[in-house]
Amino acid sequence: MDLGIRGKNALVCGASKGLGRACATSLAREGCSVTIVARDREQLEKTAGEIRAATGATIAAVAADITTDEGRAAVLAAAGTLDILVTNAGGPPAGDFRQFSREDWLRALNANMLTPIELIRATVDGMMARKFGRIVNITSGAVKAPINVLGLSNGARSGLTGFIAGIARETVSHNVTINNLLPGAFATERLVSLFAAQGKARGVAAEVAAEERRKQIPAGRFGEPEEFGEACAYLCSVQAGYVTGQNFLIDGGAYPGTF
Fold first, then answer.
1. Would the pTM count as exceeding 0.70?
2. Among residues 131, 129, 33, 37, which one has the least CA distance to residue 76?
3. Is the Cα torsion angle 42, 194, 72, 107 positive or negative in sign?
C-alpha cells in the first residue's frame, strides 16, 4: 500500500537505534526526507548512513540533546518545515519509587512529557496552516499496564497521554493527527536493561526475568523493531487521517484487558 507520504519532511527523535531508528527507516522507505536526532554523534552518523544505503532517502543527522531548549532549537532549525514529527526520548531509570528524588522526577517529566509537548507546540500550528500533519509520540505499554519498577516512566508518560487526549481533538479538523504508539516488549537495548533491573530487584539472573516475560506474551516472542516502525509509518500516512488521540498498543497480546 502506498502511504501517500513520499516527499514529506519528517523528524524522528531518539533515532540512532531501537524503535526510533525503526520508525525513521520505515518513513524513509516510504519516500520521506528524514532528520534523525540523538545525543551520540558517532552512532547517529552510522545509523544515518545505513538508512541512506538501505532506502536511498535523504537523511540528515543532528547530534543534540532534545530534552534541552538549545537542543530542540538546533534540531528544529536543521529539520526545516515539518510534515511529520515522531517524538521519542530514552526512558528514565528503573527502580523502587522510594529511592527516586525530586530531581529524578523532574528529569523524567522533562524528557518524557514536557519535551514532546514543546516539540508539538513548535510545529503544530504550521502543520494546521498547511493542512497536513502527523504527530506520533512513542510512549510505553506501561501507560496501560504499569510496571512496578518503572514508576518514573509510568507517571511522566501518563501525563503526556492525558495532554494528547485533549489537543488531538482540536487539530484533526485541520488534517493534523496526534497519536501515541505504546510498545510492549520489543527486542531493544532498553528491554535488556529492564530485565537486568527486574532481575536485580528479585535476586535472579536477567535471563530468568527475560524468559518469564516472554512466556507471558501470547505471541510467544518479543517484538521486532521493524514491526513497530511500520505501525508508525501507517499512523503518518494519508490513510490515517481519521485516526487521532489514540493509544496504539503493540505488545503481542500481553495486555489482558478489553479496552
1. yes
2. 37
3. negative
